[in-house]
Amino acid sequence: MQKFRRVFEGIAKAGQSTDLNDFYTELFITEGVRGEVNKEHEVNLIETASRKPAKEETPIKLEDIFKPLPGQDQPSRTIMTTGVAGIGKTILTHKFTLDWAEGKANHDIHFTLPFTFRELNLLKEKEFSLMELLHHFFIQTKGIRRYDQFQVVFILDGLDECRLPLDFQNNPIWTDVTKSTSVDILLTNLIRGDLLPSARIWITTRPAAANQIPAECVDMVTEVRGFTDPQKEEYFRKRFREEPLASRIISHIKTSRSLHIMLFFKHSVVPQNSIDSLVPRQPSHFVQRPE
Predict the structure, then answer these.
(1) Against a cut of 0.85, is the pTM above it?
(2) Which intervals hold domain NACHT (predicted)?
């Protein structure tokens, strides 16, 4: 709760974190399809997605992401969630973890263990057992000896930032959680189910990197499609508590097709001069990313 309740939006500034629960707006998540890498520019992908009516697809609630889909008997072990840069994949993992920690959802899960590939990259030349790796990141787990007796979720966020080989074809099978090896071997065996097969795995990635994981290792693919039009309005009304100001901003966004498309996803690049006149004498709260 301490780690994920306070977040920074856009360009981080000291003392300007926000409570995730105050602004979080449910994103549109749907079952996805893996295929060839789409090399089209991501802005074009966003525009295409923004034109597709949400009602054509069945949304998946964040708290239900590991639950069986209609017609399925068993929950998925390994889930991959794809989405373009800035669409909100990392925020989803934070919200999932925070809701679990606060006891709001997924009461059957005993441990939620969030990792980022950016963090794991730093251990590329080191060796750990799975137990040692968990102790390295989560010192509170040092008293746990038998993870196979618990329901555990590993979150692996940002596959597109992975600098490890992830050599599924040549890495040896590794089943001992107490025996040390490279982080790459630990990850490939964890994902394909040879190491701690009872665990659930959630991987997030931009679409272009999804094929780093063999299709046979992924039980279900989901896609973050961003905000629907009603969700865009909900988000801005949460971020701007003054109703007149929120209404003016929403109206302004609707007049610009380019802004409307960029705001299909939450962490957009929003031109500063497009909102300065709407929020006089105070810093903008719009989500921004450096060009």
Answers:
(1) no
(2) 77-209
